[in-house]
Amino acid sequence: MIPLQQTPTLAPDWLALTPALLLGVFALLLFVFDSIDPDESNDGLLAGLATVGSVSAAVVAGVFLLLGIGAGDGVSLYGGQLVVDGMALFFMLIFTSVASLVCLGSIDYLEGHDDIAGYYSLVLLATTGMAMMAASNSLATIFVSLELLSLPSYGLVAYLKNNKGSVEAGMKYFLVGALSSAVFAYGISLIYGVTGSLLLSEVAGALQGGEVLTDLGGIFGVGVLMVAGGFAFKTASVPFHFWAPEAYEGAPAPVSAFLSSASKAAGFVVAFRVFIVAFPIESVAGTIDWVLLFQVLAVVTMTLGNFAAATQENVKRMLAYSSVGHAGYVLIGLAALTGQGNGEIVLGAGMIHLLVYGFMNTGAFLFVALVEYWGVGRTFEDYNGLATKAPIACVAMTVFMFSLAGLPIGGGFLSKYYLLAGAVGAGVWWLALVAAVNSALSLFYYSRVVKAMWIEEPNGNLDRIDVRGYPTGLYAAVVIAAIATVVLLPAIGIFSGVAFEAASAVLQIAP
Amino acid sequence: MMIEALVGLCLVGALVVFFAPDEYAGKLAFGWSLLPLALSALMYLNFDGRGNALLGGSLAFEEQFTWIALGPYELTWFMGLDGISMPLVVLSTLLTTLAILSAWTPIDERRNQFYGLVLFLEGSLIGVFGALDFFVWFVFWEAVLIPMYFLVGIWGGARRKYAAIKFFVYTNIASLVLFIGFFGLVFGLGDSISSLALPEIATALRAGELGPLAGGLIVPEQLRLLAFVAMFIGFGVKVPIVPFHTWLPDAHVEAPTPISVLLAGVLLKMGTYALLRFNFTMLPETARSLAVPIAAVAVISVIYGALLALGQSDLKRIVAYSSVSSMGYVILGLVAYTSYGIGGATFQMVSHGLISGLMFACVGVIYNVTHTREVGDMAGLADEMPLTVGALVAGAFAYAGLPLMAGFAAEFFIFVGAFQSTVIAGNGMAVMTALAMFGIVIVAGYLLWAMQRSLFGPFRFDGDYEVTRAARHDIAPLVVLIVVIIALGTFPNDTFFRMITDAVGPLVDGATAEAALGTGGGSP
Amino acid sequence: MAAESGVFTFAPAIAVLPFVSFLVALFAGKYMPKKGAVAGIAATAGSLLLSLVMLAQVASGHAHHMELYTWVGGEGVPFELTFGILLDQLSTLMLVIVSTIAFLVHVFSLGYMNDEGETGLPRYYAELGLFSASMLAFVFSDNVLMAFMFFELVGLCSYLLIGFWFRRPGPASAAKKAFLVTRFGDYFFLIGVVGIFATFGTGTFGGPGVEESFPELAEAAIAGGASVNTFFGLSPRAWFGVLGLLVLGGVMGKSAQFPFHTWLPDAMEGPTPVSALIHAATMVAAGVYLVARMYGFYALLPTVLAVIAFVGGFTALFAATMGVVKDEIKQVLAYSTISQYGYIMLALGGGGYVAGVFHLTTHAVFKALLFLGAGSVIIAMHHNENMWDMGGLKDRMPVTYYAFLSGSLALAGIVPFSGFWSKDEVLYETLVHGLGGSPLLLAAYAMGLLAVFFTGFYTFRMVLLTFHGEPRTDLAEDPEPVRWNVKIPLAILGVLAAVIGVINLVPVHALESSVPEFLHDWLYHGPEGLNGEHYHELITSPEFAGYSAGAIPGLGELGTLFASAGLSLAVALAGSAVALALYRAPAPEEHTAKLGSLKTLLYENYYQDEYQVWLAQDLTEETVAKNAKRFDDGVVDGFVDRVSDVSLVSGHFLRRVQTGIVSNYAALITLGLVVLLVAFGIVGGWFGGVFA
Amino acid sequence: MAVPVQYYLVLSAAVFCIGLFGILTRRNALMFLMSVELMLNAANINFVAFSFQHGNLTGQVFSLFTMALAAAEVAVGIGIILVLYRNFADVDVTKATTLRW
């Protein structure tokens, strides 16, 4: 997609934030509705409202993106606290589309639970937080919006109040999250101490020449590491990943989808922005070589995630670990910014992977939600012969699995191979090789699901499907996600162009 | 749009068949597969390509337009055929049709899914041979794995799950490795290329545009070597070359016969085809400098594979290992860099495809009846199923390189081409060739051995099935294959070899003129 | 040449006709009377006629060469590979021989197969037709590649026909053995062919209108007149020697020369007409024919010639000794066949081109005759081949007896039967060239001469045991009568065997020069570069083979000639006499016991099969292959499986990090952070100036 | 100025470490929560001190954000601890280990 020549401007700048604003407004609307009419008769309405909200936000974000609003340096708001550029809109699109799918899928999943409105408003608020994160251009706004994402997420994970797993997951997520945010805040304070500002651009400016680093290098380094820790928590990267398997497994499946896809992406967008804009590698390399840092994190993360996933018995937990593994892949986007090769390929590849991942991973978790809805069971054995009962959903799941594994049936193929190519281009062969080994291993465990569904014989636990029937909302969500995943293979060009534009803009590389 | 139409036909057919009612699926799939077959035949008759697709030849049925902008590089939808790929496309369509026919008897459950996947496989295969842009090619290359996984995993034999996952992961690793190797080259080329179109890359590489990678971290020489080795291993797994061959016997033995036919007939050729297109076309100097190890690998594959075949007692395993052996000849021919060598290698791809297909089909027909493939479990089948046995004997002798059959033609070309090659100083290639040629003795050995034990002698069958004659639609593919094999062996030039050598020419002329002139020799 | 090339345009039909009969028999055989025999007879008759026409054409001085079609060509390849027909004195002669015997064998088969009510006759006649086609095509091949191809095809037919009775284990195994042993020889042959093309860029034998043929190129290269690319830095002569020996591998395989002779006796498992056609007269002759065909090449290479001669002489003797003790009539004939081809090799190696071809011709006739005779006996004996169960058949089947006797006399080399003339010339040529200064040839000659004795012995032992004395079984008392279709071929061949010698009465010519040496003149007037005269020059020119004709001291050429003739005749008579003495009795008993341990050695054929079976089976298959399999499953494949096991196990351990206790997580997070801090602190050198 | 900024830094670091220690040693969810508060306050100390040193108000404003946020966090946290108690009849964070490996 080639952006228009002269970027169209919006009458008041703040309109550029429309997606985020829409989300917030709809969240509040939900509260209003709920307080006006607190009985559970109108679940559908609430769900619909939430879906409409997220979808509309998605549409707006997409339109802005394709119109090329904020192409280049982007629309800067509130003294540069927020900036709406290509990258921001691109990620808003990811968040909102994931949120839409989740809302759609949750309709059936939450049958018979109370306080539906709370659920959806939390989802929308979290999405708002993500949108703000995507646009944040200052450590302050980043911190606030990050917490705006975190706090609802805690609630969402623990949403099933009477389900031990859900509560335990919420507890762990919360505690680890609290710890991480404390670390994050402390790190910010140190960076502020060294540079005297929270605006990313000013931070970078203060680091120029690097005389501050000569005597305060240590403090700054510690700060950077702690900030990185905060992001590692959001992206579920080692060593801050420990919450992820539990939270994804224990949480309601749609929430797992939401967190593992959108929340992860949110963590990455700020990581990209902060490290590239605020800590330009050429000026901080001497003090803290964060490229090396992310290389280490990438290797450890993807290896741990994939190897641990390989031997799981529980599909949902397998997906949880694999999500950790994918965090490792995307970290290549930062780990390969060695200055050699062209950074916009790796960075853009990371963004594209997150986009595709948003659909395929969400779809996969929603399929798990579907199975949980049926109450068939959670282990691979329980999935045996599922294709005989639910072929369409199983085709979709097969698409998700193979696309996650990097086979050319969905966009995951291209994005993963973009990442590998980028790593090679940056001269980190070994990183690409590690990724390759992991990817092959992931093919093994993803295909276990496919094998169970298509190859194995049913073992008599499938008749429950007939009991509960085929839920429309979940099916719709799963199928849409599958179609999107497949379409993103040939149609990736629409977004890849934008992504590379945005990446190069962030990297200050003239496109 | 011919190639697109071909691929499209297959994929649409796949969908149609996939959702067709189970009982008609077989006939429908067969009927549908006749369309791509006819189309490819039409293309073959109207083939007007000249020269090598990657080296500035004029393509047949060319089609190119931008697909994706990958940062600095353009991914284009780029399809076209030259004398090397055209025969392989025909091979794919023909073998698929015959495989579908031979699947009627053995496949008795979930037929619509089976035939749908087969047609999907056909489409991907044609895509592999037709694509001339790296990413398009790679998409099809990987797409082939998906149907194979199901076809082996669902309809396979006892250890099908193990075989399927082994094939799946093994070849996937290979793909990743070759991808990394190839992109090392791409980034090494830097700005000298603007797209991932293979011709552009090949031209740039041969023009010596390759620069250092990652700011001098890896100098061009190392880069060439690394990339070559990575791609060689990556493709070698598919071929397969020793020691990366162990997925093959399992996959072959467990796969249902029609799939074995396609696996041996076409899928292995993907590896050698890619080797020819990438390693030996793009990095000729490196290939020459590595001629000794490569030729050694070829010889080892030939002899070791043949010995392994000799050691087996399962008919399918025998044929499977003999494929390893035959593919070794292809490698030998490729590294020779003479028109007879590379041309013969390409011709061998086609002929081995047909012959191994025939062999597997025959074994399959026998298996349908006896439900065993163990040589020891049967004897004297010739009396009970004369036609099948006749076809098997014909196939065996074709395998053993009987003149006027395709196998002999291909192998003789390879031998002549390799023998006169000068890529190894002091006529080393002549020695390698002589060694590899001993394969023709061993192959005759194990095939005749197996036939004598299982087909001849007094009739004996340990098994509680009634041995009956095979159905017509089981025999038909065998007959067709035999006819084609003899036609290719008797008129190699008029069928494929002329177009092959025409496409191979640019590869060798620049390479060793004097070898191509048949005067390449050691002594001054 | 355009004028009479009209006739030559029919030349391909010589091979095409039998091929058509092959197709007819294969697809329509079971609907036809005689199950396709008729088609075969008609086709071979046609071939015979055409061959005779071609012979006449060539006789009228028009050797002919024609390109059939280009197998591989075009600008894409450095050199073309073509199919063509070369009709010269040698090939037309051979064509006539082959088609004649093929025709007769087809007729004979009517009696041997049809009347015996065999099943699978269409297959039989199809394979017979295919064989005739391939053999004839091999004979008129104009280049070594085409020759190789049909060489292989006749091998296939031999495999199929030996295994015709595939239901019995014997034939199936024998067929496999025959193919494998010859294949082993063909392996070298193929390398030779490849080498010839790589060296000369052409494989044509020459002939009218052929601008360059490899024998000529080789000649020129050794003479220094042309440059071809030799390999491994060898001199042209040495490298050509290597090529010659490689091709010789195929020759020795097909012509059952030591050590590749082991397949032929087993091949007797096939139907007797097949043995007559393939394993006596024609296919086995293909090997030596090839040597004659490219004699212009071999004549350049004295060492190779010496090897040929020595192998031939040794094989002649070696096989003859084994024939002495055999009990089955066909076994005796098999070993005699091996032995006789040894003679032909001896002749060619000894520089006796004409002699070799001569013996090839006569042997084809009388050996075919003997096999057919044996076949007729076997019919009579209801497929009992043991001579000790026969006896006294003389009076009960006179036609067979007299025909067989004529053949036997020829085989034993008794004047004036054909075998005498040819064998005598063979020995004579070898002798004179040996005396010319080649002790190796003399040794070969000695062995050949000694073999004559054994030949005479086993021949008459066979005759006596089969036809003379008292019938030793009821079957022999009252044998099954044979019909015309058996007798006629026997009669024809019987006469031929007696008189065919006239085509080259060398000694007589020496006395009375008005008596012509037809064959000699015939072969000497071949086309440029393909005639005996040229070969003789090469043989004798010191630049090439460098043979020179010597004579027994004090006897002179003529004396030597007659001395040699007399000697061989005397030896043959001696051998025959011993046989008569031992087995003339009405009820002869086995004298083999007298041989003591030697007997077992001979019965076991010097344990030749044993070590070859050991090589093929015990060593290659049982040991090497099985161990390769073990290695592949255990090590190569095992490694792959280990890798996956290891990764899964390590996965199991990594899982355990996730203990489920959140405090541990906090601890691990802290630990990780601290580790990173310390590591990067050291890298970044923070601890230097933090609180400066 | 009276007190050099390094001292504040040391103080905050100490407070941070105390909080961290608490997290690592205490099993009671509430204590866990308080320790987190300590760590956040350590950050606040820094912000205020640095803002004083740099002479701009950014840090002080940020510290307000942090406090508000801490409060919100506690609110959510208490809620979660509540349901934790309901389900596991305990606020010991190490007791809930149904999800692991």
Note the topology:
The complex is a heterotetramer of chains A (511), B (524), C (692) and D (101).
Chain B: H1 2-18, H2 22-45, E1 60-70, E2 73-81, H3 85-103, H4 111-130, H5 134-143, H6 145-155, H7 160-189, H8 198-206, H9 220-238, H10 247-254, H11 257-282, H12 284-289, H13 291-311, H14 315-336, H15 339-370, E3 378-379, H16 381-384, H17 386-399, H18 406-419, H19 428-437, H20 439-454, E4 460-461, H21 472-490, H22 492-509, H23 513-516
Antiparallel strand pairs in B: 1-2, 3-4
Helix pairs in contact in B: 1-2, 1-4, 2-3, 2-4, 3-4, 3-11, 3-15, 3-21, 4-5, 4-6, 4-11, 6-7, 7-9, 7-10, 9-11, 10-14, 11-14, 11-15, 13-14, 13-19, 13-20, 14-15, 14-18, 14-19, 14-20, 15-17, 15-18, 15-21, 15-22, 17-20, 17-21, 18-21, 21-22
Chain C: H1 5-8, H2 13-28, H3 37-59, E1 64-72, E2 81-87, H4 89-114, H5 121-139, H6 144-162, H7 169-200, H8 214-223, H9 236-254, H10 263-267, H11 272-281, H12 283-293, H13 295-298, H14 302-323, H15 329-349, H16 353-380, H17 393-396, H18 398-412, H19 418-435, H20 439-467, H21 474-477, H22 484-499, H23 506-511, H24 518-524, H25 532-540, H26 556-583, H27 597-603, H28 608-656, H29 662-684, H30 686-689
Antiparallel strand pairs in C: 1-2
Helix pairs in contact in C: 2-3, 2-5, 3-4, 3-5, 4-5, 4-11, 4-16, 4-22, 5-6, 6-7, 7-9, 9-12, 11-16, 12-15, 12-16, 14-15, 14-20, 15-16, 15-19, 15-20, 16-18, 16-19, 16-22, 18-20, 18-22, 19-20, 19-26, 20-26
Chain D: H1 5-25, H2 29-54, H3 58-88
Helix pairs in contact in D: 1-2, 2-3
Descriptive report:
The complex is a heterotetramer of chains A (511), B (524), C (692) and D (101). Chain A is an all-alpha fold and 511 residues long. Chain A has 21 helices and 2 strands. Chain A has a two-stranded antiparallel sheet with strand order 1-2. The longest helix of chain A is centred in the middle third of the chain and has 32 residues, at 164-195. Chain B has a domain at 290-512. Chain B has helices spanning 2-18, 22-45, 85-103, 111-130, 134-143, 145-155, 160-189, 198-206, 220-238, 247-254, 257-282, 284-289, 291-311, 315-336, 339-370, 381-384, 386-399, 406-419, 428-437, 439-454, 472-490, 492-509, 513-516; strands spanning 60-70, 73-81, 378-379, 460-461. The longest helix of chain B has 32 residues, at 339-370. Chain B starts with a helix and ends in an 8-residue tail after the last helix. Mean pLDDT of chain B is 90; it is low at 511-524. Chain C has 30 helices and 2 strands. Chain C has 692 residues and is an all-alpha fold. Chain C has helices at 5-8, 13-28, 37-59, 89-114, 121-139, 144-162, 169-200, 214-223, 236-254, 263-267, 272-281, 283-293, 295-298, 302-323, 329-349, 353-380, 393-396, 398-412, 418-435, 439-467, 474-477, 484-499, 506-511, 518-524, 532-540, 556-583, 597-603, 608-656, 662-684, 686-689; strands at residues 64-72, 81-87. The model of chain C has no long low-confidence stretch (mean pLDDT 89). Chain D is elongated and about 50 Å long. The model of chain D has no long low-confidence stretch (mean pLDDT 90). Chains in contact: A-B, A-C, A-D, B-C, C-D.
